């Protein structure tokens, strides 16, 4: 038995995974906004509910929107800012009185897909989150890579390559980060900017994609450019790591067209005459984060 927790910006999810990889318990509670103590309490409350399904000494894996700083032993790079500077793993180990492992949520995502999802059976896998933000995680030689600075896989805060566009500021204080072009909100914002003279004004990514499917040329071009920017951005990953597979997750990964468009555009950018890298959708969808947190205890 393993317990996984996905600490998200809006909800905290908890699962118990059985020996045969089945989720035998699942519960979600809202994330207390901006309140660290209440967040710890909520996690304790969720873990208490697992008792009928998993023994009291069952280890807990936690996926967080950030990472542990090796310098301070506290959380850094978290967009849930109340976590920053807090020793969450130590606080939870004390409170829950059991072993705790903590990892970045994008790392949990690819670890789940590597252990029993779309990347099962590979040796090196790269996981991409394209959702509200853009993140990533890397598995090399069957091991999840954390990195010296705890940021392995964070391709979303590299500058967008190959495109000369108007500079975009990123929340991380840098400019032109891939995230500012490839996140769901960026996809929506850029479309609205271009379509301001038109009468139609779709509000979300799904509607823009539906417009493209019904033949709207502006939406088609927008989706095509997005795929091209994604291909250009993944080129950095392929040229350096050359993974066996790239698994896409997050809301934007549900756009089926990407799985045809992106591999075609890779040819333009990757330093190789042939490119065999499969680009596939996550097998476990939104559940990969919480599953991967539980799988942190799978050596
Ligand atoms: Zn950034």
TrEMBL record:
Report the SUPFAM superfamilies cross-referenced here. Actin-like ATPase domain
> What InterPro entries does this protein map onto?
ATPase_NBD, ROK, ROK_cs
Query: S-adenosyl-L-methionine: present as a keyword of the record?
Result: no
- Taken from the record, one Pfam family name reads ROK
Q: Which keywords accompany this UniProt record?
A: Carbohydrate metabolism
Translocase among keywords? no
- Give the protein's recorded name: ROK family protein
Its organism's taxonomic lineage begins at: Bacteria, Pseudomonadati, Pseudomonadota, Gammaproteobacteria, Oceanospirillales
């Amino acid at each position: 038995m393993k317990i996984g927790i996905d600490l998200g910006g809006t909800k905290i999810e908890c699962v118990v995974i059985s020996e045969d990889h089945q989720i035998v318990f699942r519960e979600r509670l809202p994330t207390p906004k901006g309140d660290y103590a209440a967040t710890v309490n909520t996690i304790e409350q969720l873990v208490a509910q697992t008792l009928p399904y998993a023994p009291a000494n069952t280890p807990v894996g936690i996926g967080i929107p950030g990472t542990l700083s090796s310098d301070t032993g506290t959380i850094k790079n978290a967009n849930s800012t109340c976590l920053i500077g807090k020793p969450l793993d130590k606080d939870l180990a004390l409170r829950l009185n059991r072993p705790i492992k903590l990892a970045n949520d994008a790392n949990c995502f690819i670890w789940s897909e590597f252990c029993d999802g779309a990347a099962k059976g590979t040796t090196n896998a790269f996981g991409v989150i394209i959702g509200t933000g853009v993140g990533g995680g890397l598995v090399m030689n069957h091991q999840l890579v954390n990195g010296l600075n705890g940021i392995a896989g964070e391709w979303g805060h590299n500058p967008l390559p190959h495109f000369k566009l108007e500079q975009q500021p990123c929340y991380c204080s840098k400019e032109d980060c891939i995230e500012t072009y490839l996140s769901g909100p960026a996809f929506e914002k850029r479309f609205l900017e271009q379509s301001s003279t038109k009468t139609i004004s779709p509000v979300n990514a799904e509607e823009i994609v539906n417009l493209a499917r019904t033949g709207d040329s502006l939406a088609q071009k927008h989706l095509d450019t997005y795929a091209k920017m994604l291909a250009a951005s993944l080129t950095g990953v392929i040229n350096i790591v050359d993974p066996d597979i790239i698994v896409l997750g997050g809301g934007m990964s549900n756009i089926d067209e990407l799985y045809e468009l992106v591999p075609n555009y890779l040819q333009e950018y990757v330093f190789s005459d042939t490119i065999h890298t499969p680009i596939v959708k996550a097998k476990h969808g939104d559940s990969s984060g919480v599953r991967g947190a539980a799988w942190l205890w799978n050596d």
